């Protein structure tokens, strides 16, 4: 099997398994919706305050929802032994890991993109900021999966690695949160956001290049 065929086969396999276990798709999405809808109940129905906080609310909720789904990235493969088979493959492990990360984003990150505009309108976000919100999510949510894959690979062999995983990846998520929410906030006021887009795109490219290699190495250490 060629490398491209193996890459596509892993994505197809993970998508089929995810749709068989629909809770893996629904849980992060419901969690995302629940967090956003609880904010108006907690701080009161104050339109101006909600509108000002909307970018931060959406992005913090997306970050937490992404963290909720991270453990499923390699856990089932580790439990059933297919992760060992992947590591024994003749293909580069980093490329196969990238395929699993892409499948994870399609299952968990893409649904957030579809729901986020409706929740943003619910919070009173101006319509001119919705496009910016979608662009930041397109650029930022793959970074969450890429960085999270390193943390999951380091903790996949631990029975209770959820807390350690959070401590590992949460500090690395902060730059994405800062630049993404700031871009949406500035777009809502009519200010240019090209600088934030460029920084998020640079972070995404760096994560695409750098994250699969340490994730693959961490998986080898966790298996051994």
- Overall residue-averaged pLDDT value: 86
Q: Low-confidence parts, pLDDT < 50 over ≥5 residues?
A: none
Largest sheet: none
Give me the number of helical elements: 10
Number of strands: 0
* Total separate domains: 1
Question: What is the chains' assembly state?
Answer: single chain
Distance between the termini: 26 Å
Work out the helicity level: over 70%
Shape verdict: elongated
The radius of gyration over CA amounts to 18 Å
Q: In percent terms, what proportion of residues is strand?
A: under 5%
SS-based class: mainly alpha
SSE order in H/E notation? Answer: HHHHHHHHHH
Structural summary, described in words:
- The protein is an all-alpha fold and 224 residues long.
- It has one domain (3-223).
- Helices cover 83% and strands 0% of the residues.
- The longest helix has 30 residues, at 93-122.
- The protein is elongated.
- Belongs to the CcmB/CycW/HelB family.
- The chain crosses the membrane at residues 29-46, 52-74, 95-123, 129-156, 163-184, 196-219.
- It is found in: Cell inner membrane.
